[in-house]
């Protein structure tokens, strides 16, 4: 499955990010460890919700 996931910063709730992954738990862990320069400044993050798609192209289409 391919997931589109909006996350929000816990200490800065106005900061949000939307991404796509096939490993939601691993990707959130990476965000919270500062492995993404887009989100490192506002860690830690929490998942707001997620949508699952069987085809990656559909997830990409939805995200954009």
Note the topology.
Elements: E1 2-9, E2 16-21, H1 24-32, E3 45-47, E4 51-53, H2 56-63
Antiparallel strand pairs: 1-2, 1-3, 1-4
Protein model, in words:
By secondary structure, the protein is α+β, with helices and mostly antiparallel strands. It has one domain (2-63). The chain contains 2 helices and 4 strands. Strands 1, 2, 3 and 4 form a 4-stranded antiparallel β-sheet that branches. A hairpin with a 6-residue loop joins strand 1 (2-9) and strand 2 (16-21). The relative contact order is 0.32.
- The SSE string, one letter per element, is EEHEEH
Total helix count?
A: 2
Q: Would you identify the regions where 5 or more consecutive residues have pLDDT less than 50?
A: none
How is the quaternary structure best described?
single chain
Note the overall shape: elongated
Number of domains: 1
